[in-house]
Amino acid sequence: MGMSVTISAATAPDAEQILKLQYLCYQSEAELYGDYAIEPLTQSLDALRAEIAEGHALVARLGDEVVASVRGRIDDAGTALIAKLIVHPRMRRHGLGGRLLAAIEAHFAAEPAARKYQLFTGHRSEGNLALYRSHGYVPVAREEIGPRLTLVRLEKEAAAGAFVTSA
C-alpha cells in the first residue's frame, strides 16, 4: 500500500528537515553554476526559522518525511515573493513542484495585498524555467550575479479578484 503526499503549512519543528532537504536539493544547482557558496547552501537554521516566521512556508510530506517545500512572503508593493521551491531528487518529475507552487499561490491569493507573484531562478536551470513558464510565469528581468550566474526573475499577475483595489 503506497502513501500519498500531503501538503500543509510548515511549522517551527519542520525547519531542521527543510534545511537538510534544501542542502540536498541545491547541490545540483551549485554544481551547475560551479558555486558551492550559494545562499541556500550557507543559510543557517536560525535564519531559516526567521524566514519561516516572517512569511509563509509549506511542506509536502510522505509519511513523516518532508520531501518538498516552498516559502514566500508579500512585500510592501503587494508582490508575493516565492522562494526556495525544493523537491527531493527521488520525488522529482511527478508534479509535486507544480502542486506546491499552486498551493502557495492559493495561499497568497487569499491575501488582499497579493497583486502578483514573483520568483527567480538561475539562467541555466532549464527544469525550473520550464516549470515556472508552464504555470504562467514570464521572464521580466535578468540580473548578472557573477561570471557564471545570471538570475532570471519571472512574474505573473494574481488572478482577477484576488486583490482589493481602493476606490
Keywords:
167 residues; alpha+beta; Aminopeptidase; 7-stranded mixed sheet; disordered C terminus
Task: Write a structural description.
The protein is of the alpha+beta class and 167 residues long. It has a domain at 5-115: Gcn5-related N-acetyltransferase (GNAT) (Aminopeptidase). 34% of the residues lie in helices and 32% in strands. The protein is built from five helices and seven strands, in the order E-H-H-H-E-E-E-H-E-H-E-E. It has a seven-stranded mixed sheet with strand order 1-2-3-4-5-7-6, sandwiched between helices. A hairpin with a 5-residue loop joins strand 6 and strand 7. The protein is globular, with a radius of gyration of 16 Å. Residues 161-167 have low confidence and may be disordered.
Mean pLDDT: 89
Q: Which architecture of the domain at 5-115 does the CATH hierarchy give at level 2?
A: 3-Layer(aba) Sandwich
Number of helices: 5
Adjacency order of strands in the biggest sheet: 1-2-3-4-5-7-6
**What ranges have pLDDT less than 50 throughout 5 or more consecutive residues?**
161-167
Rg over CA atoms, rounded to whole Å, is: 16 Å
Q: How many DSSP E strands?
A: 7
Content of β-strand: 25-35%
SSE order, as H and E? Answer: EHHHEEEHEHEE
CATH fold type of the domain at 5-115: Aminopeptidase
Coarse morphology: globular
What structural class should be given to the helix and strand makeup?
A: alpha+beta
Assigned CATH superfamily of the domain at 5-115: Gcn5-related N-acetyltransferase (GNAT)
For the record, give the distance between the C-alpha atoms at the N and C termini, rounded to a whole number.
55 Å
Helix content: 25-40%
The CATH class of the domain at 5-115 is identified as: Alpha Beta
